[in-house]
Amino acid sequence: MTGSQPTHSSQPETVLITGATGYIGSRLLRRLVNGSHRVRCLVRRPDAVSSLATNNVDVAGGDLLRPATLPDSLRGVSTAYYLVHSMASGGDFALEDRKAANNFATAARAAGVGRIIYLGGLGNGRPLSGHLESRREVGEILRNSGVPTIEFRASIIIGSGSLSFELIRALVEKLPVMLTPKWVHTQCQPIAIDDVLDYLVAALGISDTVFDRCQVFEIGGPDRASYRDLMAEYARQRGLKRMLISVPVLSPRLSSLWLGLFTPVYARIGRKLVESLRNETVVDDESALDAFPIRPRGMSDAVRRALDNEGREFV
Description:
The chain has helices at residues 23-34, 71-74, 93-111, 130-143, 163-174, 193-202, 227-238, 252-262, 270-276, 287-291, 299-309; strands spanning 14-18, 38-43, 57-61, 77-82, 115-121, 149-154, 157-158, 177-180, 187-188, 191-192, 214-219, 225-226, 243-246. By secondary structure, it is α/β, with parallel strands linked by helices.
């Protein structure tokens, strides 16, 4: 494979963030700016995020589904974060994600980008849901781009404003008694948003000798738990008494309607989300613990920090 390596000079390197207005990207942007990095955000509507433009932040207009809009935004970029997905779109999200990843991979290689850092998802068992399969496909496209790529695969991300955390919070806050479908017993390995951001930032400086140019790292906290365990932990920390009664009759369609009724944030992606919840998302390869000096916090601490930060973080 070809692809230039990140260069080192007295001037800060330009780091590109796709998905800078999303949950992960907006928090990563703050981390990088506070760390004195030169950041460029690729967005479809620059005028809508003009407030992001500062001395260290450029806002570039571009659409991953329109290849002609990408070369200018990638020019001079040392590292590019790929943090976008189309699951909330009304169309064929897998097809859109495939096109976007291919367009970005081609443009990044042509521009001489030194490294791509991608955040995907863990997923065990066959068949994978459409969402998790698409996440895997995007990672493969980027890793085959010819640009050295680091792919992180994460389980549930715990933080105020994250989709997974908001689902758990809405259900536990609203329902003293829950008739829960089978997927609440699916095993996951939740990780705190701060730890995810630590990995993403650390990947900027990782030596080429640590990874084989295109490396997949599975990341998660130290605790394996079910969605039921997460709901119980949230209720415990909020001082709420909740009863969860498992029933085997809620199909994916009924489950998505159930989620849409009690968690409006999921109304548009309920069916796609529920299909993903059948797959375990646990870490099988712990090489990330060897490659990075990061020790993720446990589930209880992650939930506690999410609740503590709720009033301070923008959602």
